[in-house]
Design a protein that fits this description.
The structure holds 3 protein chains of 3 kinds.
Chain A (H helix, E strand, L loop, with lengths): L2 H13 L11 E9 L5 H9 L16 E8 L3 E8 L3 H8 L3 H5 L2 E9 L5 H18 L4 E7 L6 H17 L7 E4 L6 H13 L3 H15 L3 E6 L5 E6 L1 H5 L13 H20 L10 E5 L4 E6 L4 E7 L3 H22 L2 H17 L1
Parallel strand pairs in A: 1-3, 1-4, 4-5, 5-6
Antiparallel strand pairs in A: 2-3, 7-8, 7-11, 9-10, 10-11
Chain B lengths: L1 H7 L16 H8 L5 E10 L2 E8 L22 H19 L3 H6 L10 H6 L12 E3 L2 E3 L4 E2 L2 E2 H7 L11 E5 L2 E5 L2 E2 L15 H18 L2 H5 L15 E8 L6 H27 L1 H18 L4 H11 L1 H14 L4 E5 L5 E5 L6 E2 L14 E2 L22 E4 L3 H10 L5 H10 L6 H7 L4 H13 L3 E4 L7 E4 L8 H11 L6 H10 L14 H13 L3 E12 L1 H47 L6 H30 L23 E3 L7 H13 L3 H14 L7 H7 L3 H11 L3 E6 L1
Parallel strand pairs in B: 13-14
Antiparallel strand pairs in B: 1-2, 1-10, 3-4, 5-6, 7-8, 8-10, 9-10, 11-12, 15-16, 17-18, 18-19, 18-20
Chain C lengths: L8 H5 L8 H8 L18 E10 L3 E8 L18 H8 L10 E4 L5 E5 L2 E4 L7 E11 L5 H21 L10 H21 L1 E5 H5 L4 H7 L5 E5 L15 E4 L3 H4 L6 H9 L6 H8 L3 H13 L3 E4 L7 E4 L3 H5 L5 H9 L8 H10 L6 H10 L4 H4 L2 H11 L2 E4 L1 E5 H8 L17 E5 H9 L2 H9 L6 E5 L1
Antiparallel strand pairs in C: 1-2, 1-6, 3-4, 4-6, 5-6, 7-8, 9-10, 11-12, 13-14, 13-15
Helix pairs in contact in C: 9-10, 9-11, 10-11
The chains are: A alpha/beta, B alpha+beta, C alpha+beta.
Chain lengths: ~350, ~750, ~475
């Protein structure tokens, strides 16, 4: 039933061999990453998208003007990430000379506040004018605000400081309803925030989730996780309600609130070390399968679609395990279309091109 | 201006394959012109996704500075090996002190290309990321071969090469040593359209502009609208493109930079970007092409295709990429670029940096050689009144095709524009032996249109204007001919004129001693062939006309005669003066008296002492004058009467010894004396015809600038007659022969 | 007053005549040979429209810290002069992204009136707030002005201050250190601008006068690197390669300026330059390797202290160029200039004869024949005119050009076409010269053969095989 949507897409793409028509399948989102200079924009960007680990970011230099990166993403989505240098001079420039250039067609604004900023009122002022420019050229954009470097605040105060900052910022956001996060590059919070942002960004996610669910049931998994390739963030997950109904004397299975983020982080670090010791590049696909078999549970991580990895957690048991794995491989096809319908026709396009080239 | 219009009527197609015509004279000349130093051309745009580096050609440009002509002046030989050494040792020496600072920078941990002094360093060790054809990974980064140009990441280039609106339709020039980026950025209009909406328009265009506005508001709705399919169908999706920019990347020797940049900017960069603006406005061309290329790159990026493969693909699919390639190739070879932009309607344009058809001055010892370029002072664009007008040919010149006539004609036919027929006509009618005027008269065609067509052929390097060839005139081997081409030329010559002597023999004969050309042809009926040979030789810059120039030469006898005359006149004046003097003085007295009387009326006083003194003074003055006059007269009496001898030049009368011959610089602006000299000569000619020829020629031709060969054409006289008349002036003019 | 255009010491130590003091220079200009007009380009004074120091500040971004004249780049209180250009528009080219730093970068403003010459520097070091310190010292000149002489200056500023920043954070500490120091960089810019504009050079011991640090420090930093010591000297065109058969003629009395610091080869070579000997001969007589001699001569050429001419022989042919008209029109008093130079054998004649002499040269007359011609017409040229100087004058002024003689052997040509090395019997020695690209002068010098001898040798070629082309 909801296949129909994809099928139609497929047919359309199948028909289209001329590159001109391909852009239709292109979904692009312009993401503005803004905030005061030194608030950690570039750092978080490089952690999330360039496989940096926290301490690497110390070596980053200042961002001159705008750093653009185009991240190919789940659901055939391309993120145009505008990392905007936060120095006053640049800010003024965005708001004046480049106003239209910067603020039109914005899909998402991610505004980073530095918790330890001396002059929060001034920050608010800048934020205000940014919001104004945004509502002028991209009224439909969604806004996220990250209160960053929370790690610098003594734990017992975090809550309060965070809350009053947020309320202040909210009050300055006009029509927009910003989604706030408290983040730090030193714990999972950053992943959490970005995971949610990305979660919102991914098109036809609802479908993906549905399918994920049915897959989970089908293979009798306890938990299914879908990781985005570049950031290795969990973009979607399904948990068998069996877990919750199951008796309480298995605390290990009680999900900690940020276990997904932890998982991302762990795998990232794992990739880091593997690349360090095997010499394989960080960004390259390092493992196609990752099996983990414990007495009380087992899980596998497989390279799933172009832009995703699939993680499945199962109760112990060989045959179930193998069956599940097999099924997942079968399911790939299906998900591939959800991920990037363009892909296949793109391949077709490519082959036709090459044949032309040779002929 | 005509130049503009002509350049917009290209010889489409025919010049496209110009590279193939190696022996083609046009390319021959092109090889001579200075290298424009073009390293690469890049297309950069600003779209909704921000600045995008769309395409560059060639895929992997060399960062070497352009080849320079190693020869100077008219020298033919080179000792490459030694020169290289010289250059280097010299460079290092100079740069050492120009950039004595550099070693210091080198010490710092700054990234590789620390303020490198241009030339020398990229000659040897120019640091650049090792870009191969294939993708590779480095420290976890997937390095895509086409995401670096020279040592710069395209990601950085795309931002620095999309200048702000302030540069809209202005010259943008940025140099990142050793490269210079020159361009003419085009921004979208504030109202979100690419060209002003005109009131009356074909409704097709109307529709577009409406769509343009549509997308205009589309922009602010974020990706949603535009990414929704059908939009791109009727080209309304500008992809939020707000500017585009074809950037020319040059690498030039410092001392040439400004000149070369000015040329390429005026003739190529500006025109190309303007044409693209037109195409974009009419059918969203630039965006469609850019979008396609970006997609192909993105796809190839994921599939990790080799760069060479991708570039072939792009060049196959995108007419814009093709155009960029063609412009690059043509411009770097100094050829004419003919490009067709696949916009609807198609946009055709031809671009070229005009190259000189001939040299008018002898290249100095410190000027780079332009060997093979015809050396002549006969400039077809200087008109009778010696005013230079780049748009108007001298009607007394003739058209010399730079290639086989039939060949050119077929080429022109291949491409038909409204000009094709007339051009072919022009080619058929014009002969190197006939001036445009003569052609117009004999074939009764309209002279001006003939000149315009000829001008067009010349501008597009198919022909040149020369003084009509004539068997009676002299031709010599051009001091600038390129003897390195002798072997090839000789074979070509043999093909063209199997029965004629070898080219070296022919040239040797011509150069041995200048004689009227006809004396070289064995017989009268060989002459046509010999004139063809001459045309061939001139076309190839082997031979150049030896022209005659004259100045009026005033011999002492004439000088003296005029002096005498002037003295005589002066004397006359003096006489009259003195006589009139008397009268005036008397009248003066009378008035005095009257004045005195008045006074006496009022009061009878004696003559004041002042008045007495005054009168005395006047008398003394008068006397002095009289004396001088007398002396002058006496001297004049002593002067021998001027005698007009038959040969003033040989008149060795003693009273002429003191005088030395005098040359009239510019008879057109002759002083009183000079005009008297001319007159004196004139009066000596008994034959009235010769006399008025003398006066006619003097001011127009005997000025050292007009070649006497042009007289018969400009005065519509018989050549023979003209020369026989000139013979009468032998003694009165000084002659000099040069090319 | 100061000497305007000096030759940098380094060069002087190598081989180059130091005419860096006015006297030598003008003194020579009065010499009879001084007619030889120099074609070199000097930087015209007062070309620097503005000079400024820009920095990337971690908080504020790209800012102009100092400028001179005041208000020329960014508005200053109390200055209502219009700015040269809109700084905001140009700033991305003044402190560009890191990838474009540490090289010579120039840009033009949109009105295309001014050119900004800079050398953005990015020093990477963890000690800086954002791990980098970025700055640029820029000079602004008119677009039309000759930018070449300023490149060295801009590079020098960049390296000097980079050096000083690295040594003692001279720039990065500026704002926090005392105001006296603040003024000093501003003052420095002022001085540089003024001196370069007025004297085309400036020498400022930055270390001692500007350092806010204790003496000990000064000792370290008051070294050459920190003495801003710049000169605008013209960058000449690269001199043409020197041919062994060319004859150098000096434009000045080398004897009066030569000194011990000069390169030995150069000294030896210079002693042999007499306006008659060809380079090969000079090399031989000076007992110097030909290539070295050539390099030496090329250096003299670079500094416009000599002129290269062809080998003068009475068998040579010279013909007028269209420019001979300039002489007859007596442009810039050429006729007297020439008269002064050539009438040295006898009484000074009227300039008419000079005109006569030039116009009677032609492509088919050797000097010998030409002299004969005038003899017959009753004008014994040699009694009045130094013919060699006369020809020199004509050639240097471009009034006449040398018509060279070339031998072309058909066999050789065919050999080139068929890319085979065919031997011409009888042509052994001269064959390689018989392609029409080697003038007799070259043969004469390299084979040490007189014209006649060459002709004899050529006669040994098969009949009709060799042609002589005069070009």
């Amino acid at each position: 039933m909801d296949q129909m949507g994809n099928l139609t897409i497929q047919d359309e793409t199948a028909g289209a061999s001329s590159p001109i028509s391909e852009p239709r399948k292109q979904k692009k989102k312009k993401v503005l990453l803004m905030g005061k200079s030194g608030s950690g924009k570039s750092s978080m960007r490089s952690i999330i998208f360039s496989n940096y680990i926290a301490k690497d970011t110390r070596r980053l230099g200042a961002t001159i003007d705008v750093d653009l990166s185009h991240v190919k993403f789940l659901g055939n989505l391309t993120l145009n990430l505008w990392d905007c240098g936060g120095q006053d001079a640049f800010m003024e420039n965005y708001l004046s000379q480049q106003r239209q250039h910067v603020f039109s067609n914005v899909g998402v604004l991610i505004y980073v506040f530095d918790i330890e900023s001396r002059d929060f009122d001034r920050d608010l002022l800048t934020y205000r004018s940014i919001i104004a420019a945004l509502s002028q050229f991209s009224p439909t954009a969604s806004v996220y605000i990250l209160i960053h470097k929370m790690d610098l605040v003594v734990p017992n105060q975090r809550e309060d400081i965070y809350n009053d900052r947020v309320s202040l910022i909210r009050s300055k956001s006009d029509a927009f309803d910003p989604t706030p996060f408290a983040t730090s590059i030193w714990d999972q919070s950053l992943y959490k925030a970005w995971a949610e942002i990305i979660h919102d960004l991914v098109p036809n996610l609802d479908q993906i989730e549905k399918h994920l669910g049915s897959l989970g049931k089908l293979i009798m998994a306890e938990e299914v996780l879908l990781f985005e390739r570049t950031s290795f963030l969990v973009v979607s997950s399904w948990t068998s309600n069996a877990i919750f109904t199951a008796d309480k004397d298995h605390p290990a299975q009680n999900p900690t609130y940020d276990r997904n983020e932890r998982l991302s982080n762990i795998i990232k670090n794992f990739k880091q070390s593997t690349s360090r010791y095997t010499g394989t590049p960080k960004s390259a696909e390092q493992f196609s399968v990752f099996d983990l078999k414990m007495p009380n549970f087992c899980m596998f991580l497989i390279k799933f679609t172009t832009n995703t990895y699939l993680g499945v957690v199962l109760p112990p048991g060989e045959e179930r395990y193998n069956a599940a794995k097999l099924n997942c491989y079968i399911a790939r096809e299906q998900f591939e279309d959800l991920d990037s319908p363009a892909k296949k026709s793109a391949d077709r396009g490519a082959t036709t091109e090459s044949s032309e080239a040779t002929s | 201006m005509p130049r503009q219009t002509t350049s917009s009527f290209p010889f489409r197609g025919l010049l496209g394959n110009i590279e193939s015509q190696q022996q083609d004279m046009a390319t021959g000349a092109a090889a001579i012109a200075p290298n424009p130093g073009l390293s690469a051309i890049a297309l950069v745009i600003r779209s909704r996704d921000g600045p995008r580096f769309v395409f560059h050609y060639p895929a992997r440009p060399s960062n070497k500075p352009p080849e320079r002509e190693p020869r100077y002046s008219t020298e033919l030989d080179t000792e490459p090996s030694i020169e290289e050494d010289e250059d280097d040792s010299d460079d290092s020496d100079l740069e050492e002190n120009l950039y004595s600072s550099l070693p210091a920078l080198g010490k710092l941990d700054l990234n590789e290309s620390d303020g490198r002094p241009s030339k020398k360093h990229q000659k040897s060790s120019h640091a650049e990321p090792p870009i191969g054809d294939d993708h590779y990974d480095e420290k976890g980064e997937h390095v895509v071969p086409w995401e670096h140009l020279f040592e710069f990441p395209t990601a950085d280039l795309e931002s620095i090469l999309t200048p702000s609106r302030a540069f809209h339709k202005k010259k943008f020039e940025l140099s990142l040593d050793p490269l210079t980026f020159v361009t003419y950025p085009i921004h979208i209009r504030e109202d979100g359209q690419w060209k002003k909406k005109k009131s009356k328009k074909s409704k097709k265009v109307k529709k577009e502009s409406d769509e343009a506005t549509g997308s205009g508001e589309g922009k602010s709705e974020g990706g949603a609208k535009n990414s929704s399919g059908d939009a791109s169908e009727d080209g309304d999706d500008h992809g939020g493109m707000t500017m585009f920019n074809v950037v020319f990347i040059l690498n030039l020797p410092k001392e040439e930079e400004d000149e070369r940049i000015a040329e390429i900017y005026e003739h190529i960069i500006k025109k190309l970007n303007k044409a693209l603006k037109h195409a974009q406005a009419s059918s969203n061309y630039v965006w469609k092409e850019s979008e396609m290329m970006l997609l192909m790159k993105e796809k190839a990026r994921e599939e990790r295709r080799p760069m060479s493969w991708l570039w072939n693909e792009i060049l196959l699919k995108s007419t814009l990429a093709g155009a960029i390639r063609d412009v690059f190739n043509a411009v770097s070879n100094n050829d004419i670029a003919t490009v067709r932009l696949g916009a609807s309607p198609l946009v055709d344009l031809s671009l070229q940096i005009p190259i000189p058809a001939y040299l008018t001055r002898y290249p100095g010892s410190d000027e780079r050689a332009m060997l093979g370029l015809l050396l002549t002072s006969a400039n077809g664009l200087v008109n009778e009144d010696s005013s230079e007008d780049p748009t108007r040919l001298n009607k007394h010149f003739a058209l010399l095709l730079l290639d086989d006539g039939e060949k050119i004609i077929t080429e022109i036919q291949a491409d038909n524009t409204e000009l094709t027929a007339p051009l072919i006509e022009c080619i058929r009618l014009c002969k190197p032996t006939l001036s445009f005027l003569q052609v117009a008269q004999t074939q009764n065609v309209e002279l001006n249109s003939l000149l315009v067509l000829a001008q067009h052929l010349i501008y597009w390097r198919r022909a040149m204007a020369i003084p009509p060839l004539h068997a009676r005139e002299m031709y010599i081997v051009s001091p600038n001919c390129d003897s390195r081409k002798l072997p090839a030329a000789n074979t070509a010559w043999k093909k063209a004129f199997p029965l004629a002597p070898s080219l070296p023999g022919y040239l040797a004969a011509l150069s041995a001693a200048p004689r009227p050309y006809k004396t070289f042809s064995p017989s009268k009926n060989h002459r046509p062939t010999y004139l063809d040979m001459l045309a061939w030789a001139i076309r190839g810059g082997w031979v150049t006309p030896l022209r005659t120039f004259a100045w009026i030469l005033v011999w002492p006898e004439i000088l003296y005669e005029v002096q005498y005359q002037l003295k005589a006149e002066a004397l006359e004046k003096a006489k009259n003066a003195t006589s009139s003097e008397q009268t005036s003085s008397t009248s003066a007295e009378s008035t005095d008296e009257s004045g005195a009387e008045k006074k006496s009326v009022n009061s009878d006083e004696p003559l004041s002492s002042e008045q007495a003194a005054e009168n005395a003074r006047l008398e003394r003055l008068a006397m002095k004058l009289a004396e001088d006059a007398a002396k002058f007269a006496a001297e004049f009496e002593k002067m021998p009467k001027p005698v007009a001898t038959l040969h003033p030049s040989t008149n060795s009368a003693p009273h002429l010894k003191a005088l030395s011959p005098y040359i009239i610089k510019d008879p057109h602006k002759a002083s009183h004396e000079e005009s008297l000299y001319i007159a004196t000569y004139g009066n000596r000619f008994t034959d009235p015809k010769i006399k008025d020829c003398w006066f006619k020629f003097c001011s127009k031709y005997f000025n050292g600038k007009e070649a006497l060969e042009m007289i018969c054409l400009q005065e519509g006289m018989k050549r023979k007659e003209t020369w026989s008349i000139l013979m009468h002036f032998q003694e009165t003019i000084m002659i000099c022969k040069h090319w | 007053m100061k000497n305007k255009y000096g030759i940098p010491k380094k060069l002087r130590k190598h081989f180059c005549p130091s005419f860096s003091s006015e006297e030598d220079f003008n003194g020579e200009k009065k010499d009879t040979k001084a007619f030889i007009s120099t074609s070199k380009r000097w930087p015209a004074g007062a070309m620097i429209q503005g000079i400024f120091f820009a920095r990337f500040l971690p908080q504020k971004g790209i800012k102009v810290i100092h400028q001179s004249p005041p208000g020329c780049i960014v508005t200053e209180p109390g200055v209502d002069k219009p700015r040269l250009f809109d700084f905001e528009t140009m700033s991305e080219y003044i402190i560009p992204k890191q990838a474009f730093c540490n090289r010579y970068v120039t840009s033009c403003d949109p009105e295309n009136k001014y050119r900004i010459l800079g050398h953005p520097v990015c020093i990477k070091d963890e000690k800086y707030t954002r791990n980098e310190f970025m700055f640029n010292f820029c000079i602004v000149i008119g677009v039309e002005a000759d930018k070449i002489p300023y490149e060295a200056v801009v590079r020098r500023l960049a390296t000097t201050f980079t050096e000083m920043e690295i040594q003692n954070e001279f720039l990065s500490q500026e704002d926090i250190s005392n105001s006296q120091n603040r003024r000093s960089i501003a003052a420095l810019l002022e001085i540089i601008k003024e001196d370069l504009n007025n004297y085309n050079e400036c020498m400022i011991p930055v270390g001692t006068s500007l350092s806010p640090f204790p003496k000990s420090m000064n000792l370290i930093i008051a070294d050459d690197a920190n003495t801003i010591n710049m000169k605008l000297f013209p960058i000449y065109k690269h001199p043409p390669p020197v041919k062994a058969w060319h004859v150098p003629i000096s434009k000045m009395k080398f004897s009066s300026i030569i000194d011990d610091t000069w390169d030995l080869t150069m000294k030896k070579v210079i002693l042999q330059i007499d306006g008659i000997k060809d380079v090969r001969r000079i090399a031989h007589d000076a007992d110097v390797a030909l290539d070295l001699a050539k390099i030496a001569v090329q250096h003299l050429l670079y500094y416009d202290s000599i002129i290269m001419l062809d080998l003068f022989l009475f068998g040579n042919i010279y013909a007028p160029t269209p420019d001979v008209d300039d002489f007859l029109e007596d442009k810039e008093g050429m006729q007297d200039e020439c008269a002064n130079y050539v009438y040295i054998n006898g009484p000074r004649l009227s300039n008419f004869y000079l005109c006569r002499l030039f116009t009677t040269l032609c492509t088919s007359r050797t000097i010998k024949e030409w002299l004969k011609l005038h003899m017959e017409q009753g004008f014994p040229v040699l009694n009045f005119v130094d013919v060699r100087r006369f020809v020199q004058f004509g050639v240097i002024k471009g009034l006449i050009y040398r018509v060279h003689k070339y031998a072309v052997s058909n066999t050789v040509l065919n050999g080139i076409v068929s890319a085979r090395n065919v031997g011409v019997e009888g042509g052994e020695q001269l064959q390689r010269y018989a392609d029409g690209c080697h003038c007799f002068d070259q043969i004469t010098v390299e084979m040490n053969l007189a014209d006649v001898k060459i002709m004899d040798q050529l006669r040994r070629f098969p009949k009709g095989n060799v042609e002589i082309i005069y070009r």
